[in-house]
Structure of long-chain-fatty-acid--CoA ligase:
Amino acid sequence: MLCTWLSTVAGGIVVLCVSLKIFLPYFWEDLIYFLRRKRSKATVKKWAKNGIVSLIDLFMQRVEKNPHKPFLNYEGTVYTYQDVDRRSNRVAQAFLHYGNLKKGDTVALLMGNGPDFIHVWFGLAKLGFVVAFLNINIHSRSLLHCINTCSAKALVIGEDCLGSIEKEFILNLLENNVAVWLMSTSSPSQHVHTLPDKLDKVSENPVPSHLRAVTDTRNTALYIFTSGSTGFPKAAIITHLRTLVVSLVFAQCGAVSQDVMYVTLPLYHISASLLGIGGCIQLGATCVLKKKFSARQFWNDCRKYNVTMFLYIGELCRYLCNQACKEEDRVHEVRIALGNGIRPSVWKEFLMRFGPIKIFEFYGSTEGNLSFLNYTNKIGAVGRAGIFSKFLHSFELLKYDIWKQELIKDENGRCNKAPIGKPGLLVFRVTEDAPFSGYAGNKEASEKKLLRNVFVEGDVYLDTGDLLVMDEDGFLYFSDRVGDTFRWKGENVATSEVAEIIGMMDFVQEVNVYGVSIKNYEGRTGMAAIVLKRYHTFNGERLYKHVEDFLPSYAQPRFVRIMVKIEHRTSHLPRSKREIVEDEFLTPQNYGGFKIQKKCPMHVQRRMKQKKRI
């Protein structure tokens, strides 16, 4: 009887496993990911019960448990959790004694990758300040916009950024009562503070713990700037709860405390700061921090420091694949890669070249309330809507008219879902568990991101501004982006900002900027369509110098068109409906670095070939 019963059970299990393999081939991966996500939610709740309501609280717990565990490895110098804690205490003490700031004030950070970025960030957080991360590539005009947007009371400038800061910019800040702190021992003015010398004068004792105390996890912890889907850079509000939730993503990929993470992406982005540094803190792992990415040094560093996981953007993987093949390409311990923007062809080449690394492509945005993770390693997919996904997040792909740049609605004014295999506008349901915190100092932009009464009266969805496609198996693929931004070199470029800068030239009557594809390159680069003023001639060298002075390198247009008039009806089309440029970079020649196409209407697709590359 027992044997019969056991045989029946065993047979049933076999039948079930075979059935799942045939009809639900991703069942077990869906289930494992679902359980990891549920465990992450339970972890956040457990932290709250134990008084851990911020990333700094979590860091302090790690310091207490493993004070001598290596936390940062920067250019061969190792900083333990305790080292970073003590150094950040000195930063906190310096601002407490000399800063003339109060809890809740915003302090902006203009610093490149390095231990001091972490020390200053954590030190400011220990005083209860909101920290704003600034992109080190942007120039004075945009910096002023960012500082004003987040109402910063002080700015800390890293030593590596001092050379690019103009004296007029600092004077402008001082006139507006924004304190300026330099990571330098010398100051250009008695009104500009220096930080390193003050760190030697204060103790490394902790500041009073009540200063960092968080009364509500929905309070603001950080401002991280993003172009979103339209307009100038906006300060996305990152709450304390968000910092804790994002720090758990690597754990959902199967990472453990023994892992060593390699971070080469800029810390002012959410990926490096919260996924990377925050992820290491959550795991109790070690971070190998690089000042900037180097394709030539990448794998040597991985071997040297026993790296087991890294963060990427699509360009990073392409650069690695473009390096000359070596016998030791597969000689490393890397097992996990987490990031976004890798093209399917690069994905395949990367795996064939460097071995069976588990690539976790994700979809998300700085200001977004939800994200996707491709936990099955399906090449090309940015995520998956598995059989358990409805218990994790609520999203929809809505029918969208790419020519009119608007949602397709029925006779009752309600939206329709996009069919399987067709692009649709991705929207996330805004709920108490998945809130949208919006942008600092910009209620209008925050409200524009919300869609109301989408399916029923009173519902609210977050408009991501991205078109995605879902296949029959539930895999999601990025299709295109709507709005007036494009992505180049891993950065968002606001076309309105670029157009305004170019429009300052005295020979420009009208300008329209948009992104164009370049063969074998990720993202889009800038195309500026210009109408000249009457009786004026185009001066490429002056324009080249002008955009160099006012725009970061990734936002500077690589192409210029001189036109009789601009056809505005196509200026806001998704990029797949605009220009496709089969090119790489442009030779300066007589136009200051710009390629000129005369009298070529924007709405006519035209392939442009370039012989040289610089």
Summary: The CA atoms of residues 502 and 546 lie 8 Å apart. The mean pLDDT is 85. The chain is about 30% helix and 25% strand.
